[in-house]
Amino acid sequence: MAAITGLRGSGEFTTDFRPTNYRELFTLLEPNGTAPLNALLSMAGSSETDDPKFNHFRDEMPDRYVKTNATQTTSDTSIVVTSATAGVLPFIVAGTTLVNVRTGELMTASAVNTGTNTITVTRGIGGSGVAMVAGDTLAVAGFAAQEGSGAPAAVSFDPTMDYNYTQIFKTSVSITNTLKNTYLRTGSKEQEMLTKALKLHMSDIERSMFFGKRAEVNGNTAQPTRYTGGLLSQISAATTIDASTAGATAGKFTEKEFDRTLIETLFAYGSKEKVAFCGAKVIAHLQQIGKNRWQPTAVQGSYGVSMTRYSTFAGDLLVHLHPMFRQIAGMESSMIILDLPYLNYRYMKGRDTNLKRDVQAPDVDGSVHYYITECGLEMTQSKVHSIIKNWALVE
C-alpha cells in the first residue's frame, strides 16, 4: 500500500511503469537528489495542457460562524456581526439555529440583512438570553423548521477560478568536435556534460516550483515570457506560520507549540498524511523534540525519496530533508508541508522534458544540445498546504 496519499502504482521505479522521458529518467537515476518534489510529482500528478495558461476551479465549504461586533444585551434581537465574518451571512437563513460558543445560548435566525451585517434572531431558545460581548462566536448549530412550513430559503455558492502559467526552461551543452574525439580517462566528456546539464535543468524546475511567482511579461506580443507561480507564493497566508512571532519565545517552538500548530493549522484542511520538506535546522529540531515518535525507516511507497514519519493524533508528516534548503540562506529554518493530491505537474503538450540535439549553426565545428521543458505547477487548493518559517530555536 502506498504510504503517500494520492500516489499511484506499486512504488517501484521501473522503466516500463509509464512512457519515459528525460524528466522521469532523472527521477529514476537520482530520486534523493536535487529535485525530490519533481520525483514525487512525476509519479503522483502529471498531466498535459494545450495552452500555456491553465485554469482550474476552487471550492470550499464555509466555516459557518460569525463574530459579534459589539456588546449585546440579554434581550437584543438585532445582532450585528463583524465585517470580517459577514461573508457567511448568506448561509444563514430563517430557521438557522445559532449557538453562542462562550455562553451556550441558543437562538434562531428569522431574517438577515447583508447590507448592515445584521441578523434578526429569537433569543434564549430552551432557556434565557445571555449578554454578549464583542467578538463572541455565533456558530451555526443546525436548522429548526416550524411544523407545516414550506421550503426554506435556498443557499448556493459558486467555485472561484484560479490559474497558473507554464514556464519554458532551457539548459544547454556546447562541445567542440575536437574534444568529442579526444580520449579522456574519465570517459566521454559530452555524456558527462549532458548528465550534469540534466541535473541543473531539473534543479531549475524544482527551484521555480518553490520560489516562482506567476507572471506574464509582454503578454500581448508574439513572444511573451511566462513564469509559473511556485509554492511559496501560492500557499495561503492563513496556513503560513512565522515562528519568530508565533511561539511564546521569538523563533522558538517547543514540542507542545509545534503539536498545537499541527492540530490547529497544518492538519485543519486536507489529508491526514502530508509531505514535509525541511531545512537542516528544522530537521534537527524535530529530531530533538520527537525522538520517541520517530520511525527512522524509509517509508514504503514513496518512490525512492527517503522519508521519516512524524506521527500525531491530528495526522502524520512524512519528513524529508530537501537538499536545496541547505544551499539557500534562510531555508534551513523552514518547513514546507504539502498535500500531494492537491498538486499537479502540468506540462505543455509535447513539451515535457526533452533533449534537443545538434542545434548548432551549420558552420560550427562542434555540437550544441539543450534540454527544454515547458511546465508549471497547479495547486488546486491552497489551504491544505502550509509553511513554517524562521524556526530558529527549540527547547
Give an overview in words:
- The protein is of the alpha+beta class and 395 residues long.
- It has two domains: 263 residues; 79 residues, M1 Pyruvate Kinase, Domain 3, CATH 2.40.33.
- Helix content is 20%, strand content 29%.
- It has nine helices and 22 strands.
- Strands 13-22-18-14-17-16-15 form a seven-stranded mixed beta sheet. Strands 3-8-5-6-7-4 form a six-stranded antiparallel beta sheet, with no helix packed on it. Strands 1, 10, 19, 20 and 21 form a five-stranded mixed beta sheet that branches.
- Helix 1 crosses helix 2.
- The chain is elongated and about 95 Å long.
Rg, Cα atoms, Å:
27 Å
Q: Mean pLDDT, nearest integer?
A: 84
Tell how many strands the DSSP assignment holds: 22
Order of strands across the main sheet:
13-22-18-14-17-16-15
The biggest beta sheet reads:
7 strands, mixed
Distance between the termini: 36 Å
Number of domains: 2
Q: Which spans have pLDDT < 50 for at least 5 consecutive residues?
A: 6-19
Q: Tell me the structural class.
A: alpha+beta
Helix proportion of residues, in percent? 10-25%
Share of residues in strands: 25-35%
What gross morphology would you assign?
A: elongated
Contiguous helical run count? 9
